[in-house]
Amino acid sequence: MKRNVLVVANWKMHGQLSWIEKFVKELNRGLALETAEHLVLCPPFVYMEHLYRSLIGTGIRVGAQNMHGTSQGAFTGEVAASMLVDVGCKFVILGHSERRTQCGEDDRQVAIKFELAKQSGLTPILCVGENAEERAAGLTEVVIQRQLDAVLLHAGQEAFSGAVIAYEPVWAIGTGNSATPEQAQAVHAFVRRHVSRHDPDAAAVMPIVYGGSVKAANARLLAEQSDVDGALVGGASLVVSDFLAISEGFMSAVAR
Ligand code: 13P
User: Which candidate in 16, 174, 177, 185 could, as Cys together with 225 as Cys, close a disulfide (CB 3.0–4.6 Å)?
Assistant: First the structure.
């Protein structure tokens, strides 16, 4: 039996009101009732409330792609955790590699956001993962341990209680070159072992989801890995039939 399975759509900077309406309609049409509670859709901020309202009664939850590390103040263009909660948001993706590389977010800033998200009642989805050079140099575990330790140092030994971790190897994001099920399993097991040294109870139940070129074609094999509890899906989450097929792939592992 799998841990709590989560299949998360990260729409990144895609979508429009009309597109979202069509997406939700088609998703609801194709979705088995028991699958809905395992799905999270993360739209751009401006569509959060609209999406939340159109999902009322379906069981599908919404998440944000980022938030600010301060509770309020003079931060032009930023969005606070409490505002996300206010419009129905339940999850927040933090430390995505695109924010680390394009926006210069470092481990400490991500850790500050992580703690604030939890204090605000959001479930953080902490992204960790190595780039191609780091993997080639044999540094995968070193990098991931550093990213996890920053959160443990800032938010304490029990930081990961009630949280989600996403393993997203940078080289697999948007490349069509997914980690193999074995590569994903090895890193997920490492993440769980590392968290377990600090908080064995949290580690035992914490969903660790995989992201990086997840497609309908590879979802089932990834889902069969004992420490892969779900997926964080980029490109394929923009196509309802693909997102449904990926969700079904992971749900079939729940049943087992
Ligand atoms: P792709 O599924 O497009 O590779 O993106 C993965 C990702 O970055 C999800 O957060």
Answer: 185
